[in-house]
């Protein structure tokens, strides 16, 4: 499962930076500390289980290949060193990416077949929610929420 990295520009300098970035990402992706393979494997297993209609026995919609591809791209877009999400499926055919610290600190991102990211979080006493388009990079708002849940010190 691979996705293309969107170019950040078309000048010779931008093309060079994109090439160097790809090489560095491939190198770090193979290190134990920065590998995203566990989340990718979980995504593949969930998709294999949930890509047919009625996968849950209660008329769930199948998870489409485009949904899997967007979820894969979101995982790949996580900055190096970020915690990996748990992957799940929803009856509406969306895939979920979840980060959990405890029952009051969690965030769930629902990935749709058209690349829209719906999110809901519990951050102590607040519960931000909303949606953002996925355009090749994880929106800053979502990265901030993930950091608040998964990287905060207790």
From TrEMBL:
This is Uncharacterized protein. The lineage of its organism: Bacteria, Bacillati, Cyanobacteriota, Cyanophyceae, Leptolyngbyales.
